[in-house]
């Protein structure tokens, strides 16, 4: 099993700052790549367009907030030339998200960014003034940060994210300015769930499929057949793993029939972290001594989950591990000739020694 902390960051903004929204997600994914293994933490960016679903019975903004805000631990709001469409209870959807999140989790868990670059000539002047009025209304609370260009936003947001996460680990409280009690969700994944995610991203088509036939159920992750069709115990084990990754939001049902699933951004992030451990373990297995190197072919020649790993896939993951100082590599013609564990990589393996993967049971493996 894998134990760790799962933290959600809600990204709130009107549509005029879509580049900043993408940058916020990129910063979060880079944070995960650098820290999630060693700290056993995964941060998920939450966006309305990816995490909300259609429901009836109220104002759309109220329904969205009910679905998402209470499940998040930090809110990042980004504003420029638009405040957004008014709702039943506030100036705009973004403002309502900020105010409701402050009531739910506290104002200290909110980061507000205002862009001060030139306003487009086509902008709605009423919207521009609404943004300025809102900015003035929160000025005395010291809640916001100004930036000009998207890269500057990314740098400032990364700094604030680091501060927030440092407080999580230093005080076991989640806060960006002052200490507040945190409500973090503990994630424990079955070994079958880990294998489903890791096996899925080995294939070009990163889907998980559950086929239901008269003879039984057949579960595939990528190209890997996981269970023995018709064996009740085998089917139950692997479908429990599928239900778990679906419940935690690592995969989503494509057709609402629970037959075809695709990985979410959080699912891809976690799958990458799992592969980092798998590759570190493979290097450790073949490394003869502390100073020895393992040939790249040794790392890739033995199958994983009954499937041959693609050299390009392994190379990408090993290069990321090297950038995280988990391994040291010997470059060869733009690729990797050999690798060995660093002290940080050995520490990671000790910390993740309890992480388990289930061996696929299907007929193809």
Q: Round the mean pLDDT to the nearest integer and report it.
A: 83
How many domains is the backbone divided into?
3
- Proportion of strand residues: 15-25%
Helical segment count: 12
Distance between the termini: 22 Å
- The protein's oligomeric status is single chain
Which sheet architecture does the biggest sheet show? 6 strands, mixed
Which spans of ≥5 residues are poorly predicted at pLDDT below 50? 52-63, 171-186
How many β-strand stretches?
Answer: 14
- The shape is globular
Helix content: 40-55%
- Reported by name, the CATH topology of the largest domain is Rossmann fold
Rg, nearest Å? 23 Å
Q: Indicate the structural class.
A: alpha/beta
Using the 3D structure, state the CATH architecture of the largest domain.
Answer: 3-Layer(aba) Sandwich
What would CATH call the class of the largest domain?
Answer: Alpha Beta
Q: Helix and strand string, N-terminal first?
A: EHEHHEHEHEHEHEEEHEEHEHHEEH
